[in-house]
Design goal:
alpha/beta, Immunoglobulin-like, six-stranded parallel beta sheet, 29 strands, binds alpha-D-galactopyranose
Length: 671
């Protein structure tokens, strides 16, 4: 796989990094000294420090005091713990928010946010930019050369709270952004289709951010999302330039929030600006398939990082605290999740946060060291996990291997899907992607979730799952891939609009119609309690289309429902390549059967044979091969493998038995 992102030259620690966010501003020095002892006991070797420390470094406007930071850095260094040092711009001090309320973001109704919380700033605000860069410069100058500082962490979750702003500065910047993109007002009107409802602009000054109280044009909405992402990236770049000036040897990153997508900013397009990509990932307790959603995000991180190792910057030992009901992880689940991230390419295991807060908004968020202290199951597991991470040292730097299926994912497609009004307005962008990933996960087939500009040649199968927006260039790349012998599966509501969010005419899915030799003239969505049957015996829901075949074989037709008798699934041979179209949302059995046929035709095999519920992923490189096995069931399970389990030292010949919930990492013998 090729793509965005760069491998980190010098990783911040020797092995797989272990630790988490450390917010000692909340604690006295005696507690901090206890932290040092307990971190050593747990094997922590990297902490993210200073995320919320702006007011500590600059207690009053223009008065700087780094004495607390100096002591913290020295102490951590003495204890052998490296630092991922945050620039503190996620936490603008109260003095700043009160002196300059104009930096606070405005919502779509023009309501300015109250001071407090975090990320209380607008990315287009020149006032904020100036004071933010001043603290970043003073901080970078101050710590330059400190041996503990091994990584820069720009701000925190940029866009998490300040992702969209509608203030006067944002409006002005948006107008400039639109002018730079389109040149003339006429071109904007054309691109966004403003003639409809007679909304054409006559001057750039009439263009506003999509504010509340009216329907907005989908083209405008999509560009506003792009603009917002660009503004935040501009902030990141400005901070990075200063960090590179003072500490060119220290790599720079920021923590992403990659999940199913669309995300608040366009991480795949941000990734080339990072020395390493890092992610914060939180599972949702009540989701019974949360381990698979975790795998999806890991496979996406790998796609975003160009296949290289990435950093798990934060996850949770137990419950988060922002849902209505926050359940802790089940016994053993934290270790399965941590190992699951490493299996999919992370070279770090980091948590939010080291010690549970006693006060503050997140006082009930789980931590490595819970309120109850060190004599707890959670802390025992944290110490155990530290041992596991240590035993995985030799895995660092290896890459996930054997992914022969690519799933195309683009944030812009998700933004476009949620703009305007659609035939079924309850479709989530990643619904199809996740259903297909889920089916492949259950069959132990490794998938790279990649942006559509990825080189596809090496894949046996490319899935285009509900990729609502696709550019001409990316659609052509898929067609070239098939012409070169590849197999593509295009699913419903893909290739519908172009980069301006304008529908491609002549039948759906416009961008792929010729490639598929099939198209549909009408979408007939289903209500939540309707299903249809296909003549292959598969049942389907939510979406059907009236499909016409020009040059393709009909694999399955609708047997019931509004399009009974018409094609539902088609297959076209294109030279040595194959193009499949799936026009409806198959239930898991049918989807599994269809995918099995495609995998069989293309010779894509499972990572290994294993009993149901066992996650299997392989990392390798330089003649080494590591097979990760995770038993997500509460029963005994097995997998085929030969080699030594790095976690226990046991040598297995042909078969590994996995106790309920157990993990194993097998150093495989050369095959
Ligand atoms: C995010 C943030 C952290 C913390 C955690 C847990 O990932 O980066 O500061 O708030 O969520 O809620």
């Amino acid at each position: 796989m090729s793509g965005a992102g760069q491998a980190l030259g010098a990783w911040p620690t020797d092995g797989i990094s272990y630790g988490g966010d450390y917010n000692p501003e909340q604690w006295d020095w005696d507690v901090i000294l206890e932290d040092m002892r307990l971190m050593r006991r747990a094997g922590v070797d990297l902490v993210t420090l200073g995320v919320f420390s702006w007011v500590v470094h600059e207690p009053r406007d223009g008065e700087f005091d780094f004495s607390w930071l100096d002591r913290m850095l020295d102490l951590l260094h003495e204890h052998g713990i490296s630092v991922d040092l945050a620039t503190p711009t996620a936490a603008p001090p109260m003095w700043l928010q009160h002196a300059h309320p104009e930096i606070l973001p405005e919502d779509e109704w023009g309501r300015r946010r109250a001071p407090g919380g975090r990320l209380g700033w607008c990315a287009s605000s020149p006032v904020f930019r100036e004071v933010a860069l001043r603290i970043v410069e003073r901080l970078a100058e101050h710590v330059a050369g400190h041996p503990a500082v091994r990584l820069w962490h720009v701000s925190n979750e940029l866009g998490g709270g300040n992702g969209r702003c509608h203030c006067a500065e944002s409006t002005r910047s948006f107008q400039e952004w639109v002018e730079a993109r389109y040149g003339t007002v006429e071109a904007v009107n054309e691109a966004w289709g403003m003639a409809f409802w007679g909304n054409s602009f006559s001057a750039f000054e009439e263009i506003q951010t999509p504010r509340g109280g009216t329907n907005h044009n989908p083209g405008q909405q999509l560009d506003y999302e792009r603009f917002s992402s660009d503004e935040l990236l501009g902030h990141y770049r400005a901070e990075r330039a200063i960090l590179k000036k003072w500490t060119p040897e220290v790599p720079v990153t920021t923590n992403f929030m990659v999940g199913l997508g669309p995300d608040v900013v366009d991480y795949a397009r941000w990734a080339p600006e990072m020395d390493v990509v890092g992610n914060d990932h939180y599972t949702f307790g009540p989701d019974p398939r949360r381990h698979q959603e975790l795998a999806f995000s890991g496979d996406r991180m790998r796609g975003i990082s160009g296949g290289g190792p990435w950093m798990l910057m934060e996850h949770a030992t137990g419950a988060s605290s922002w849902h209505a009901i926050n359940q802790p992880k089940l016994p053993g689940e934290m270790i399965r999740h941590a190992v699951g991230h490493v299996a999919r390419g992370s070279d770090s295991v980091m948590f939010f946060q080291w010690r549970a807060s006693r006060a503050g908004i997140e006082q009930f968020h789980s931590a490595m060291l819970p309120h109850a202290g060190a004599e707890t199951r959670v802390f025992e597991d944290v110490v155990r996990l530290g041992g596991i991470v240590e035993r995985l040292r030799e895995v660092r730097g290896s890459r996930v291997v054997g992914a022969r299926v690519a799933l195309l994912h683009d944030n812009e497609a998700g933004w476009a899907l949620r703009s305007g009004l659609k035939p079924n307005n309850r479709i989530g962008y990643a619904d199809t992607a996740r259903a297909i990933h889920d089916a492949l996960f259950d069959r132990a087939v490794t998938v790279d979730v990649v942006p559509p500009w990825t080189t596809l040649d090496a894949y046996a199968v490319v899935v285009v799952p509900g990729l609502f927006l696709v550019s001409d260039e990316h659609a052509a790349a898929v067609a070239d891939y098939v012409a070169g012998g590849g197999t593509v599966l295009v699913t419903w509501f893909s290739g519908i609009v172009d980069g301006t969010n304008t529908v491609r005419l002549g039948g759906y899915p416009g961008a792929f119609r010729d490639l598929l030799g099939a198209s549909s003239e009408q979408i007939h969505p289903l209500t939540d309690d309707e299903t249809v049957l296909l003549d292959a015996g598969w049942s389907a829901k939510r979406w059907t289309e009236l499909v016409r075949v020009d040059d393709a074989q009909v694999v399955a037709s609708y047997a019931t429902g509004p399009n009974a008798g018409h094609p539902a699934v088609t297959r076209r041979s294109v030279g040595r390549g194959t193009a499949w179209y799936l026009s409806t949302e198959l239930e898991p059995d049918g989807l599994g059967a269809l995918l099995e046929r495609i995998l069989e035709e293309t010779g894509v095999a499972a990572v290994t044979h294993a009993s149901s519920g066992v996650e299997a992923v392989r990392r390798g490189g330089d003649g080494q091969s590591f097979l990760f096995l995770i038993n997500h069931t509460d029963a005994e399970a097995w997998a085929e493998a030969t080699g030594e389990d790095l976690l226990t030292g046991t040598v297995h010949r042909g078969r590994v038995d996995l106790a309920a919930g157990a993990v194993a990492v097998i150093r495989e013998e050369p095959r």
